[in-house]
Fold each of these.
Amino acid sequence: MSHDGSAREFLPLHPLEFRILMALARGPSYGTRIVEEIESREPGAKLYPANLFRRIRDLLARGVLEEATAPEGADPRRTYVRLTAMGRAVARAEAHRLRALVAEADAHELLQEG
Amino acid sequence: MPIYRLLLRLLPSRFHARFGPEMEDVLAYRLGRAGTRLGRAWVWLRALADIATHAALERVRPHGSRNDEREGSGMGTMGQDLRHALRGLGKSPLFTAMAVLTMALGIGASTATFSVVSTVLFKDLPYQEPDRLVAIWPGTNFNNAMVREALATSPALERASGISGWTLTLVGVGDPVEVRANRVSPDHFRVLGVQPALGRGFDDDEGVPGRSDVVVLSHAFWVRAFGADPSVLGRSIPLSGADDNSHNVIGVMPPDFRPVVGNPDVWIPMAPAAGASLEEDESWYVNHRVARLAPGATLAQADDQIRAFARLARERIPDILDEDDVAEAGVQPLGEYVARDMGPVLWVTLGAVSLVLLIACANVANLLLARGESKRAELAVRVALGAGRGRVVRMLLGESGSLALAGGAGGVLMSLGLVRMVVALAPADFPRIDEVGVGGSALLYAVVVTLASIAFAGLVPALRASGVDATASLGGAARGTSRRRGSRLTQTLVAAEVALAVVVTVGSGLMLRSLGRLVSVDEGIDTEGVVVFRTSPPDGRYPDGEAFQAYYRDVLDRVAALPGVRSVGAIHLLPGTQDNWSFPTFPQGYEIAEGTPPPSVNFRGIWPGYFETVGVALGKGRYLADSDNADAEKVVVVNQAFVDRYWPGEDPLGRTVRTFRADAVPYRVVGVVGNVRQHGLAAEPRPEMYFTQSQWGWKWAFWVVARMADAERPLAHAADLRQAVWSVDPDVPITGLEELATVFGRSAATTRFLATILTSFGVLALALGAVGVFGVTAYSVSRRIPEFGVRVALGSSRRGVLTTALGASLTPVVAGLVVGLSAAAVASGTLRTALFGIEPSDPVTYLGVGGLLLAVAILASLVPAIRASRVDPVTALRAE
């Protein structure tokens, strides 16, 4: 939990960055796989390369992600990335923030049908 | 993907080195999920926007900061920037109209050209698995046995079909008409993998004599001759000219079926004598061969096998195939074969139009640069208020982007019209021209070109203008270093425009000069006022040789008797076309080396009166006459090229010529005539022999040539001509009634077509270049008004100011001319095959183009320069 304080400095996260972090929650991954993961959870989302890799590059630079060793036999051109402990804390903090927002929306009766 | 790889270079090198390959993967994934062609085009559009935006942001703020997120690259701010850009453009309609029009011209012309190039060179042929189709040994004549043996000895070939163009006559269904036929091997439609829409194709046993009385109709002919009546299947139609006279209709091809060769009305099977060997088979009319590669076989294997076959064939028929033939043996992808030799020329055209597009982009870039300068104050305010550099770049990119998108849309619309024009202008035999349209790939091309234009025309000015220093600009000290840099950039752009315009204009100049040379070639005959038409008596109508002769005698007599006709004659192959017969010939005393075939010499059958009617010059001896008939001594007339080749420096009169065999009946030479451009204007005359029909005895269908009294309107008596022919026999069709000059004009059609296209590009390049020079001069003069004011105030003469202003604007023009002329000298080599009668380095063209461009540039800068010389010092200085 030592990261929680500094993690809040990253908030609010850009939606795409949050999605990248979620796509990495279950373990290391790489560009195209991340795109597939995000788009499978959110039909209609369409990611384009320059945008995606600039985000990844920034997240790496800020210590939210780190490079991971590629599995045996993987394409050597791929950069595998994974969450750092800080990254996990940032994702969690953003999730809490969003949950609080949603709760607030609910309190304003925005979530009720009709 | 190479395009994308190129675009990746817009990103900083460290970035694309690290992520480039993966970015390609992601784009491939994106494209893979796009589905339709339109979807893929949209993905490309988005991907390019993605790269352009992020490349700009990356250059401006390489290490993403928190503000970057706020400013966002989301569609929200982008939309805002776009709206801002549109508002800005709306405020200067003249600038906007000029920029959009320039872009639309460039993009429209290049999209139209790309449509033609991509269709002719790359579009899949409309056959099953077209990649597996090849042409066998192009350029050599085959007989049927040779097709059979080539297939049998080449395991890499699965099926093969010969194709031969024939003309048949259809009688008894309406007026007698000539019918264009492709005689093909029974396997023909199976080779192509296309089935008739109605009925069936040929069976294997329909390729033998006695069984070959079947015919497949083209859709167009079925509609034209039979009113699209499906009950025509199974009917027997009287088609003469092939081995059988009546043919059972067994099939009708689909409307969109495209023949491999020519534009046939019908297909009939070839029926060579059964079992004839390569040596015995006399069916030497199989001009084209198409084959399908066996599954898994490669082009290279087929090529090797056909070359091996060629060496064997040369050993077996050494007096027909020579070493040159063998050297040309091999297979060629059918797509290339169909495109003929248009490849290099089409690439040149696409290259030329790309240069025009670059000029257009440079023009718009210049306009934007000038505009960027004038917007400095506004931008400075924005920067002072805290707008990031990235945001400013995006705003400006939004401007060039909106311009290019509007230009792109206009260009696509324009290309629709242009393609129609090109198709209408193209010679009828231009390969695949009827398939050309603005299709998916052309639209994709337009999108890519548009985005590239945004990058080219917008990024440089945007990055420059965004480098504005708030305090300096607002403080009025804007005439500092950055302005000078801007003007240098502008001058470089103008020099580049001029250089590009020179290259394009030299290209069109060379084509125009070629066309001029071509149409002034001496045809060797006088085509003015001569009308030609062909009459072809159906087979069996005059089985007897004498009756056949009597028919033509009658036709010629009755035509000659018409009041509008001066003289008349006939020839069996019309000059100015690609039709040709040439036979092995043995000129007396001409040494033929052991083991080589005798020379093949052009052969023409005529009716006396032909030479006089079309005005072929008589060099020596006499023309052929009516007295040279079957009972008289066999005589021949040869052309000057024949004498120069076989009897140089000797007297040809009295010598003899034998044809086909060294021991054949000799024909004595009684005359030498001038060379006629038998194969069109561009082809050098070849050795040629003329025989009379009555002595040679074969029953050719003849082209009647008639010199009309009214040379201005030779076709005025066309109806009388038809009437005269039909008064002899109403069942003989008349075809191709036209002026001989028209026939020769067609042989220059491709050159004329290319000259037209390249000239329009040249004019466009010149106009755009002139606009560029004008714009830059006007702009630089306007900026230097205060300076000129000071000069005038200090006593400088108006003339001095005029010279200064002109000199300043002409410096980049001259630099551009020098670079452009040198570049043109290198690039024009690619035009060599399309040129006629001049070298690619033709000095007249280069001097002319250089002079023309200089004149245009002077004119374009004169108006603003005069304005500069009229400046009123008081006003000028007050403005300061």
Note: The interface with chain A takes residues 11, 15, 18-19, 21-27, 29-30, 46-47, 50-51, 53-55, 57-58, 63-64, 69, 73 of chain B (CB under 8 Å).
Amino acid sequence: MAVDGWEKNLYKKYLAWKGRSSRLERFLNGIAGKPAANNFSRGNDSPGVFRVAAAQLEMKLFKDPLEYAREMHQFVCRGFNEGARLIVFPENNNLQLLGMLPGVEKIAKKNRESSGAWDASGTEITVAEVIHYVGPVMQNIVETTFSRLAALYGVHIMAGSFLFPDGSRVVNRSFLFDSRGEVAGTQDKVHLMPLEEEWGISRGRELKVFSTSLGPLAFPVCMDATYFETFRLLELKGARVIMIPVANPEAYNYWLALRGIWPRVQESLVYGVKSAMVGSLLGFTLTGKAGIFSPVELTPEGDGVLAELKSPDREGMAVADLDLYALEELREHHPRRDFNPSLYARYLPSLYGCW
Amino acid sequence: MSSFELKGVIMKVAAITAHGLELNTANAYRSSLKNLVKFKGHPGLLVFPGLFPCLLARQTGWIREINWSVMPEWIKNNPEAWFKVVENYLALHGEIARELDCYLVGGTVPEIEDNRVFLTVHLWEPGGNLMGRQRQTHLHSLEKKQGYSRGEELPLFSVKEHTLGVLAGSDGWHPEAGRILALQGASLVAAPAALPGKFNCWLQAAGIWAQVQQNQFWAVESQLCATFGEKNYNAESAVLGPCEITPGQTGYLERGGPGSRAVVADLREEERQDLLSRYPLLQLLNPRAYGGCLREYYDTFS
């Protein structure tokens, strides 16, 4: 993998050729065929009520971008057949493409204990450097794949988040594609885990809400759901469905996993959709359960869970219906909905250090 | 570390639920509370549930039966009568703190100032002196309807090696309040509350449990278990901590369902400090990404 000068450029061109858009589009058009008349459940005649699917993917390396496209197609097709109009994918949903780099598994295994630096032939390479090298190739592959899939099936796809170069920075960026296959918006991860900071990833600078035919959507990334500020700002900006792609590198524990999106949904009175990357790869074991969450008042069991997968380490798909009318009604009359702006103005400017 | 060294950083705390306490007279109450505290190993901090002072006032006969749903209005019309009730309550608990040699965090009690009525929590130190008070800063819709006002301060108090903050009543469900306490340096939060209606552990987890996990402080949540003002209060009291330093990583050191008299646990502050050095959640906050915007949106509720 340690390549320099013209060899480095030549190999990069080879990767770009393998992941070229025309090849991917031809492949996807072929396997998708002509999707059957859509099976959308209740959403077609009522824009505020629609079905959403959250994918749980098992991490695996792909040597060829077509294998990646096939895998993503399988989940989109499954969500479409379930009647979903919005399909959500997990965090780091491009790392599978590191399989295109020869010897990557061996390097990762050798450096499992190192702190974010991969030692190839005695030369340390940071994750950020790897992403700078293959990022543009990966970006084209994922954008082409999800754009084509969204257009072919006529669904919105939150494609998950990806490590991408952005100028001199590397960011963890999530993408939303609308049902025409256009990029409806992107969101950079705002709160980083200590490991990501070691990797040289940069923080996002703002939290955004995107207006779509399904309503205002937002999709911060994983650790962002640890902090109430993320969901509070997004709901006050108008988001009613907030998607969180996750890839948690820790052994599964019900309570640890509960700490992210679930309490944020309760505090902010929104719907939450969590998609998880699971499995072992590149020295990490990822766990999680994809799920769809709502305020406890809108769930039959009073537990705030509309759908959740049972296994924390196998692939699957959680599916549930969201009713934005019911949510709005609840928000309007919720007994604990209260704000105290003068209290916040008194303390938060100095405590946050900026206001 | 030897047990001697650890001794200085362990604090026993208790959530008192009011269930099973003898409340017919002030002396009966004092006596039954002392027995309970002795039985529970003399915790250094007792937290009483929301509305407990009102329940006590009614049961002991300090006040005649009144319509609690119009309490703020009644207090405005009868400030002297209510002042006497609060005076009795404060004096009694000063004595109890001294006799039990422990810190007390009282339940919420209506308090009038400048013709506004607040829901206030009082704190006593082991010498029996009043350390301070904390007014509830966020209101339930029913409390708004009844005419209560919001407090506008969230001070901290020194309690042994801890810095204590209070999340009174509804504040437990408002993450802004917990964040303000945590960023000021609270290591321990007392949460007196009273949750009427059918018991739902998930509704409770959305409150103090969620606040503890995103702020990494300890909390003593004391929920009223009693019938009061024609309502049944049946929630769960608990002592909570960050998942990583609690048994089974549940976030609960101890919890007691409706019907528990007291929930007691030891806080091992060194374990929390160790967690903070490994996983400093608040240092990973990114206020630049939302600080300015949040202010604009909050201001729309002014």
Note: Residues 2 and 121 of chain A are 7 Å apart (CA to CA).
